Amino acid sequence: MFGFGDIVGQDAIKGHLMAAIEQDKISHAYIICGERLSGKEFIAKIFSAALLCDEEEGKPCGHCHNCVMSYSGSNPDIIRVTHDKPNTISVDDIREQVNETIRIMPYGGKRKIYIINEAEKMNPQAQNALLKTMEEPPEYAVIILLTSNLEELLPTILSRAVILSMRPVRDREVKKFLMEVEKVPDYKADICVAFARGNVGKAKLLAKNEDFDNIKAMSYSL
Ligand SMILES: [Zn+2]
Question: How confident is the model at residue 193 (pLDDT cuts 50, 70, 90)?
Answer without folding.
Answer: very high
